[in-house]
Design brief:
The chain is of the alpha+beta class. It has one domain: Nucleoside Triphosphate Pyrophosphohydrolase, CATH 3.90.79. Strands 3, 4, 5, 6, 7, 8, 9 and 10 form an 8-stranded mixed beta sheet that branches. Strands 13-12-11-14 form a 4-stranded mixed beta sheet. It starts with 12 loop residues before the first helix and ends in a 16-residue tail after the last strand.
Length: 266
Amino acid sequence: MTSDSVDGDSVDADSAGADSAGAAEGEPVTANQDGNVATWAGVATASTDDGVPAWLAPLAGRAANMPVPAPLRPPAGRGRAAAVLILFGDGPDGPDLLLIERSAGLRKHPGQPAFPGGSVDEADGGPVRAALREAQEETGVDPAGVRVLAVMPELYIWRSDFRVTPVLGWWHAPVPVAPGDPAEIAAVLRVPVTDLVSPPNRLMIRYPDGRAQPAFRVAGLVVWGFTAMVLDRVLALAGWEQPWDRERLTDLPASDRPAGWPPLAS
């Protein structure tokens, strides 16, 4: 339900980024789909014994224990439950990630790239079903084709009072995807991981209040806010991150500012 979407809020990057994901570094190279020649993050792209691609297995083993810095830990008794689906597949250009672009006419988070997701309904019974349901509604993903690999720790977004649970999934049986409701979802994107980790596509953007946060330039979009923060940590946790300049801050010109900019004032 996009009206209760959780992505797009900014977080305190100084505190959130200070606690590294603690994963071993690895330099990715383009992977092919048959898994016979190319490698990804130093491992063969063939599947493991349990069917999970070898390039995804390290992240699957670490995701549930992702370190969460104190400012992002949900306070006791506060926050609305929400979930997002971090869904990796094997696309025509190698490993990729499913993202959505929200419609420009929305009242909340207009035009912003995000993970599929939203509020956890009572009927969901928890974050896994919520994440899969939202992904199906927003993109057409068939939950039967998704293998849930890990339920990651909750992250608190104080601006919107959401307790967000990222759910890591492997898209073992992908289907064509498209916006479920064009009034809410403008586009559904399969973004190659090679694009996400490419140093020229990574930047630290300065917010109007002076804070800086990681962002990505991919698929003609600027991915920022909560989505970029989680993605930054996931790439490091998986060992896919390539060295890039976190010290160089970028002030986005008006013509280059993402939809919904600037974020809500605190």
